[in-house]
């Protein structure tokens, strides 16, 4: 699953934090792995909670939080949730042109050991949101450089802030295979018209796509969650 959780703030209720709604949305789909974006840890706006930890605890999952920035007395970034043990957790900073004054972005990765002993690398990322795609282009190229040195099968998920056909997603498609081609839209939650949240993998020969869908959950966040079932081939 890929899910931008909007720091657990339902857009229809400004200032309110509803972790239970996010937890319920994820739990209903029962995913093995989740890439979360816009996660708060001990911030003024969200309270004395590590949101990744709290959600993982309720779902009985392992977790790893990757800080992108300091924010509101705490931290803000992306996270990984997993039913299976995580190791080799790491945060990689992604490039931003200083002149753009773009918010620092990262990719968080971890090695996941599956019940049959097979291992994969799983990554959660959230690319730059500015209208100009300069930073996103730099960031996706950096992610590809990271992935190119990876010996394990690699699953990447997140909010790319770019739709299919854009320069950024065309670049993504040169190194990864997305779980959708005619991708259902993920924003806005009411009458969605643009797909910017994706799940992708490499190498193509190691995976088989079984299903891809966008979940119509319009309360919990300003993004719709994306879930795909992919088979890891031995």
CATH T-level fold name:
Deoxyribonuclease I, Chain A
Report the average pLDDT across residues: 98
Helix proportion: 10-25%
Strand order of the largest sheet: 6-7-8-9-11-10
For CATH, the homologous superfamily is named as Endonuclease/exonuclease/phosphatase
Strand content: 35-45%
Total number of helices:
4
Helix and strand composition category: alpha+beta
Radius of gyration: 16 Å
Task: Report the biggest beta sheet as strand number plus sense, adding barrel if it closes.
Answer: 6 strands, mixed
Per CATH, the class reads Alpha Beta
Q: Ranges with pLDDT <50 over ≥5 residues? A: none
How does CATH name the architecture? 4-Layer Sandwich
Structural overview:
19% of the residues lie in helices and 39% in strands. β1 (2-4), α1 and β2 (33-43) form a beta-alpha-beta unit. The chain has helices spanning 19-29, 51-59, 134-148, 167-175; strands spanning 2-4, 33-43, 47-50, 62-71, 74-82, 86-94, 105-113, 119-126, 154-159, 177-178, 197-202, 207-214, 226-232. The strands form three sheets. It has a six-stranded mixed β-sheet with strand order 6-7-8-9-11-10, covered by helices on one side. Strands 1, 2, 3, 4 and 5 form a five-stranded mixed β-sheet that branches. The chain has a single domain, classed as Endonuclease/exonuclease/phosphatase (Deoxyribonuclease I, Chain A, 4-Layer Sandwich), CATH 3.60.10.10.
